[in-house]
Amino acid sequence: MAINRKDVLTRTAVGAVYVLIMGVCTLLSWWTTLAAVCVTAGFCAWEFLSMAKSSGLHPYRSIGTVTAVCIPLAMALNAGGTHIVALGLAVAFLGGICCLLRFFVHEQDGIVDVAVTVFAFLYVGLTLGSFLLLRDFDPGLGGGVMCLLILLSIWGNDAFAYLGGSAFGKHKFAPKISPKKTWEGVICGMAGGIVFWMLIPLLCPNCGFSYPYAALCGVLCGILGIMGDLTESHIKRSFNCKDSGTLMPGHGGMLDRSDSLLFVSVGAWFLVCVLPVFLQAPEVIAWL
Amino acid sequence: MAINRKDVLTRTAVGAVYVLIMGVCTLLSWWTTLAAVCVTAGFCAWEFLSMAKSSGLHPYRSIGTVTAVCIPLAMALNAGGTHIVALGLAVAFLGGICCLLRFFVHEQDGIVDVAVTVFAFLYVGLTLGSFLLLRDFDPGLGGGVMCLLILLSIWGNDAFAYLGGSAFGKHKFAPKISPKKTWEGVICGMAGGIVFWMLIPLLCPNCGFSYPYAALCGVLCGILGIMGDLTESHIKRSFNCKDSGTLMPGHGGMLDRSDSLLFVSVGAWFLVCVLPVFLQAPEVIAWL
Q1: pLDDT at position B1, please?
Q2: Taking CB atoms and an 8 Å cutoff, what residues of chain A touch B104?
């Protein structure tokens, strides 16, 4: 496939604005990260539920979107504390109760509409919420640089995959789910993503990463990013939609742009915040 | 509507076996309660997902059922501790990841199948899990008696509503959702349920209930029980099913029998374990 210059330019310009906003918000502070995450979660949930609506279901878009925004917002009530996850989940629980109450009074609704709404705000809210947990690991500049590098690894992966695939792509990667993806693009993308992970031990020595661990994280998060991308393609296909929205010309909707972020956030949070704690706990070492 | 004696006898006999097993398990210990809750959760999730399957969806029955059973099981890992809810939710999260992985490798599946599966194990697992939290309030005999009285209030409500409605029922309560329900039955049921709640301050003085608070709990949980019942009818109607299963002749499936329990468990846990703590916390008093 030849590189289409106009397509690359539009995609790059729109992507640059998004990258600038997300990058600056992430770098500045936990609170600006929170703002960026809430806006992203709201758009993603709305687009997910709009796709569901276009496929003939009757999901509760307002309840789903508000809950998706409120999950990260609730986390802010106890930022840095030990109840940060519990507060997000409590909001999700309340969102579920709101859906059931609406279901209860609307006799024409199906329980599938409730299920899709609940799934949408959990899928978007919990995954993006884990990016806040990652940012909470070190609320200062060091954590900001780390989170920015993780975002850059996702964007780098996307950009290198697109460019590499456009230039050298020959062998199809997942022809039925995502026909444009090639093995050459995937490999270029993985390499691009790993480079940014390898910068973490160099630029954020306080995060306690070794170079081999950073490389391992790069590989695992690269795989998660591709899985997020393919899952999103699969979701769109199951709703018979080409793009999740039209917010970002050249990219589609916010959900199209954030598909890898959803999965990588959870994986990176686990690799950066959870696994090292477990590996140092004596009772876990004793199990191994 | 005249009382059908054979129907009442079958219903009573099957109900008695169920009541005996659930009652004894609840009274004996936290661990026997756990066993009863796990079995109930497994049957309920399987029946919910079977109804979804019969309506043309392709939910993941095995993953959904196993996750619904494992949510209360995980709670047992830290019974009496502070991580009991977190462990249940962690299992729910893993169940969601399993669903997404299956979705990822089965290109013919729709995201609606994933959403319905996730909703099923959350709906059943979290609500029944809150009955375990209620039993955890006092793992000794006192807590057992309290939980048994709460179960008796649900069953008493059902039985009195059925008998009262059969004997005196004239005015339809919710003709479109549950055509057999009458206002007379609902009022008899509520009265029957409140009686058992009023026994809690008498038989379990350690639970710290006053008679007015017990009566309030009886009214609120009576309303929740009716909501659970109507929600279940609505779910069955949206799946075009008459009964959720055939496990319990005269009652339908386990989900038909447990519909009120799901909602009342959450409400009773909130009223018994959460609200009194909040009302005594100085910062909450200061807000009011």
Answers
A1: 47
A2: 227, 230-231, 234
Secondary structure (DSSP) of A215-227: HHHHHHHHHHHHH
Query: Crossing angle of helices A111-136/B111-136, nearest 10°?
Result: 70
Whether residue A270 lies within 8 A of chain B, CB to CB, comes out as: no
Question: Which residues of chain A neighbour B103 with C-beta distances below 8 Å?
Answer: 231, 234
Residue among B208, B118, B54, B265 at smallest CA distance from A99:
B118
Span B14-38, pLDDT tens digits: 888 999 999 999 999 999 999 999 9
Residues of chain B found within 8 Å of residue A283, distances taken between Cβ atoms: none
- What predicted TM-score, i.e. pTM, was given to this entire model? 0.90
Q: Report the alpha-carbon distance of residue B146 to residue B160 in Å, rounded.
A: 20
A102, A117 Cβ separation under 8 angstroms: no
pLDDT in tens, A64-109: 999 999 999 998 888 878 788 888 888 999 999 999 999 988 888 8
Q: What per-residue confidence (pLDDT) applies to A283?
A: 62
Amino acid identity of residue B270, one-letter, is F
pLDDT of amino acid A33: 95
- Write the residue in B100, B120, B176 that is nearest to A107 by C-beta: B176
Residues of chain A with Cβ-Cβ distance to B111 below 8 Å are 116, 119, 234-235, 238-239
Closest approach of B238 to chain A, Cα-based (Å) = 5
The two tokens of residue B125 are: 């697992």
3-state secondary structure of A252: strand
**Closest residue by Cα to residue A132 from A204, A171, A90, A76:** A76
Residue A211 has pLDDT above 50, yes or no: yes
Taking the Cβ of residue A103 and every Cβ of chain B, the question of whether any pair is shorter than 8 Å is answered with yes
Give dist(CA B151, CA B260) in Å, integer.
Answer: 10
Q: Which residues pair with B248 in a beta bridge?
A: B252
Structure tokens at B259: 């519909």
Helix (H) or strand (E) holding B223: helix B211-238
